[in-house]
Amino acid sequence: MKIGSWARFLLAVAPLLAGCGDFWQAPTGGSGTGSFSLTNNGPITVTPGATSGNTATITVTPSSSFTGTVTLACALTSSPSNATSPASCSLSSSSLDFTSSSTEAQTATMTATTTASTTAGGYQFTVTGSSSGVSSETTSVCVEVTSGTCSSATGTSGYFFVLNQGTNEIVSMQLSSGQVSGISNGLLVAATPTVEPAAIAVGTPNGNNGNFLYVSTEGGIYLYTIASNGALTVGNSGQPIAPIPYIANSMRVDSTNSWLVFTISGLSQLYALAINSSTGLPTVLGEQPVTLPLPTNATPLQLVISPNDSSSCTNCYVFVAMGNAGTETVLFNPASANPFVGSGNISVLNNQTDRADNTVAVDPQNRLLYVGETGDGSGTQTGGLRAFTFTGTGTSEISGSPYSSQGTGPSSILPSADGNYVYVANQSVSGSTTDNIASYSVSTGSLTYIATVTAGATGPMHLAEDSSGGYLMAVDFAGNPDLQIFTMSAGTLTSVFTGATTTQSAAAGPVAIAALP
Question: Model's pTM, two decimal places?
Answer without folding.
Answer: 0.73
